[in-house]
Each structure stands twice: as C-alpha cells, then as structure tokens.
Specification:
alpha+beta, four-stranded mixed β-sheet, four-stranded antiparallel β-sheet, 8 helices, 33% strand
C-alpha cells in the first residue's frame, strides 16, 4: 500500500493529507505504539496521499487536477473536499472563503439561466480567534495566601466584507429546465430551498422583477471541514508545517453569510 492513489468513493476522501515518502514511512513506523498514528492511517474519511509515489497523474483525472493546482500537493498540506464538487479540493486554511465564493459563482450561472439582468452579493466573513493566555494570579485562600496558575481565554473578532456584482446582457432567455439541470451537478445545492423556489416560479411562468435573500454557507462548508479538523497530528508528523497552522485553524470560528439581490429584465 504505497498510497499513491485516491479512492473513487468520495466519502473516503472528504479530506486528503499530502505526505512525502519519508513522512509516510515515519507514520507507518509509529503505528504499533501510537494511537493517533493509527487513527489517521486507518481513517475512513481522510485519505493519505504519498506525493512522491505519483508517477503518471494524467492517468487519473483527480490526481491530474490536483497536480496542476499550484502547490496543493506539497507535503504537509491538508486538503478539504468542496461541498459542491467532490473532485474539487482546497487547502484547509483557505476553505471557508473559497467555498463561500464558490457558492456565489454557482448562483451567478444559475441566475443567467433564469433571465437575470444583474446580480450582486455582499459577502460577510466573521472570524473569531480563541487565544489562551497563561499567567499567575495572587489571592487569599483558606488557610493563608498564595499564588495560582491562571488560564484565560480571549476572543478576537474580525469582520470582513466584500461586494461582488455581475451584469447580464439584455434579452436573457428564461430556461428553467437548464437551470435545474445545471444545479443538479452540485451536491448540497439541488435541494437548496432558494434554488427550488425560484425554479418553481419560473416553471409556472411567474415573472420576477427582483429577488433578495440572505443565506449562510457555513453549514455546507462545515461538514467536510469537521472531518479534516478532527485530525490529531501524530508525533511522527509534528515536524511538518501542518502542525502550527492546523492547530490555529482549530481555534478559529468562521461564519460566512451572503446577502444576494437579483433583478430581472
């Protein structure tokens, strides 16, 4: 088992950990006496990929795509599967934003099939970082005075906003059948109430002038991220760059919301 291939079943590769040949050997060496190593090596939803053993990535469309996606396959990178496309992956630290932006891109094409004139979105990101501070506190205790170690957790909240806008050419043709066919390609979204409601109106011949709604993308993104973030880094992999940034991501809480407004011809 050289881990040079990825399983065809999407549920077995909800996250991918790219490892060099030497890192994978160290992990295997740890298996008999380290539970974290065993949990990772035999994980049912996290695939380990030996990046040094990939010889002909063009023989597999997924490996070929990952190989041509910049530095995604650098050893130590933890990749998360997109909730909208099981063959699309992003490095874990970029997952929240990338998935939020992807949903907007999908919406843009969707509105085009329904004769939209213009679509705009306000994308809001809230990041809450937990920081634990250790200190020494002094006080009175039963039986006398003394010092005690104190752990304090601070929360740092950062808000970012971005506006995206898309305009369509005049005379857009109403194609609800094409809209439904397009959205079926994306897991999570075909049963999205926002999509279903708009398609039903279009199929009934009810013309819209404007549509405005809010939606959160955190829930969809969180499913595969929870799998990735459940990982406990074994001792044998502590030397990888993965450890520092990964532990920080575990401490962060993200929330993304999209306020969308669409006008029609």
């Amino acid at each position: 088992m050289d881990r040079s291939e990825l399983p065809a079943q999407k549920q077995k590769r909800r996250a991918i950990l790219a490892l060099s040949d030497s890192a994978l050997r160290n992990l295997k060496y740890d298996l008999p006496h380290n539970q974290e190593a065993r949990d990772l090596f035999y994980h049912e939803q996290i695939s380990l990929l030996n990046v040094d053993a990939i010889n002909n990535p063009e023989e597999n469309s997924l490996l070929e795509s990952l190989s041509h996606s910049g530095d995604l396959l650098n050893s130590g990178n933890l990749l998360v599967q997109s909730p909208y496309d099981s063959d699309d992956y992003v490095e874990v630290s970029q997952a929240y934003y990338t998935f939020a932006r992807k949903k907007w891109d999908i919406y843009t094409y969707f509105w085009g099939f329904l004769g939209a004139k213009e679509a705009s979105v306000d994308l809001k990101e809230i990041q809450i970082t937990k920081k634990q501070q250790k200190g020494v506190g002094q006080g009175k205790y039963m039986g006398g005075k003394g010092k005690a170690n104190v752990n304090k957790i601070d929360f740092n909240k950062v808000e970012k906003e971005m506006n995206l806008n898309k305009k369509f050419r005049s005379g857009g043709k109403l194609m609800p059948g094409n809209a439904k066919k397009y959205i079926k390609k994306y897991q999570w979204l075909f049963r999205d109430h926002d999509f279903e409601g708009i398609i039903e109106l279009a199929e009934a011949g009810i013309a819209l002038e404007e549509q405005e709604f809010y939606m959160s993308v955190t829930q969809q993104s969180q499913s595969n991220l929870d799998v990735a973030l459940s990982l406990n880094v074994p001792v044998s992999l502590k030397s990888l760059d993965l450890n520092g940034k990964f532990e920080q991501i575990k401490q962060d809480i993200f929330e993304f919301s999209l306020k969308t407004k669409v006008t029609f011809w």
